[in-house]
Amino acid sequence: MSVMQRREFIGLIGSAATWPLAVQAQQRGRMPVVSVLWHGSQDREISNPFYHWLVQGFENFGLNPGVNVALDHQFADESDARYNVLAPQMAARRPDVLISIALHPTLALKKAHGDVLLVFLGALDPIALGVVDSLARRTEPITGIAAMGADLSAKRLQILSAAVPGLSRVALLVYPKATSTTDNDIKQYGEAAKMLGVSVRSYEIAEYDEVAAAFARLTEWHADGVILSQTALFALVREELAHAALAHRLPMLTFLDTFVSSGALASYGSPVRDVFLAGGALVKRILMGERAGDIPVVQPTKFELVLNMKTAHALGLTFPPQFLATVDRVIE
To answer: Fewer Cβ in 10 A, N or C end of the chain?
Structure first.
């Protein structure tokens, strides 16, 4: 994403960087508290760039953790039981703002937040999932940044087919705990596969340590390509997934460019870094007194194709000029 495009994206959520630090909670004589619910374990989340981008986004908009805002991070470790405990506890402490990262934290805090302001980041399609009833304005104190992607299934499969000559069997890796997302992806990719004349078979990864077993199964099927369903767990095992694909000499197309930096062949989706950087701007607007329900839910406006050329060479892939012309960014 260019500097100009990043400015346009940030402009969608307001010019908060120019506002003074007269935050409402400070006027009440205390430091404002923002409580964040992450889906993964503490170790994996902190080693993931999303965590650092979120903190950087706060700092970019004048909210400095430990100085003029308190950031309280909670980690569910992909556990439904922990969501059921953490979400009500976080809401009961009544922070100034709650932040949910990805689908399951959003659904958990949506159920528990009551009148505490909620900002979601990356909840896929928030209307289809019942998180909000309108993108423009809502009666509930909730807003956020969507991460649409389910409708990109056909495009992603088309990209992989164009990149890999003779592609015929594609393994779709899915997260079974996200039932609605998984069911939709299986349906969407199945329909796209029929149009492109390829076969798609789904393989489940439900825990951090199931990557190797999934690749063992899909190689038995003789898959010649891999696509990832858009789910948060996979972002936390991106290195394991990228390394497994390369070890099995399988081209893998993903939904985030962080996978490509780890060695996956390519990604197609909205730039995730900008989503997390922009979280601070939304929180700043709320702390300055704007009603969360009046702040439009931000939708991605740009999608980019990112290609790892080193991985392509390792897989023996060469690309025609017409394919390379569609690539937005190349990682050497």
So the answer is: C
DSSP 8-state class, residue 151: G
Q: How many CA atoms lie within 13 A of 280 on its CB side?
A: 27
- Which domains are delineated in the chain? 3-148+270-294 (3.40.50.2300), 150-269+304-331 (3.40.50.2300)
Provide, for the chain, the percentages of residues in helix, strand and coil under a 3-state DSSP scheme, each rounded to the nearest 5: 45, 20, 35
Burial class (CB in 10 A: 0-12, 13-18, 19+), 82: middle
The pLDDT, as a whole number, for residue 301 is 83
Indicate the length of the chain as a whole number: 332
Query: Taking Cα atoms as reference points, which of 178, 180, 174 lies closest to residue 201?
Result: 174
Q: Residue 184: which of 135, 115, 231 has the closest Cα?
A: 231
Q: Give the neighbor-by-neighbor strand order of the sheet with 304-308.
A: 199-204, 169-174, 225-228, 252-254, 266-269, 304-308, 329-331
- For residue 2, the model assigns a pLDDT of 47
DSSP 48: S
pTM for the model stands at 0.89
Q: What would the pLDDT profile of 34-69 be if each residue is shown by its tens digit?
A: 999 999 999 999 999 999 999 999 999 999 999 999
Full strand arrangement of the beta sheet holding 142-145: 70-75, 33-38, 97-101, 118-121, 142-145
Q: Is the dihedral of CA 148, 150, 156, 158 positive or negative?
A: negative
Give SS3 for 303.
coil
Q: At what angle do helices 80-92 and 103-112 cross, to 10 degrees?
A: 50
Which DSSP string corresponds to 276-298?
HHHHHHHHHHHHTT--GGGSPPB
DSSP conformational letter for 121: E
Where helices occur in the chain by DSSP H, the ranges are: 3-11, 24-27, 42-46, 49-60, 80-92, 103-112, 153-163, 179-196, 211-220, 232-236, 238-247, 257-261, 272-287, 309-314, 321-324
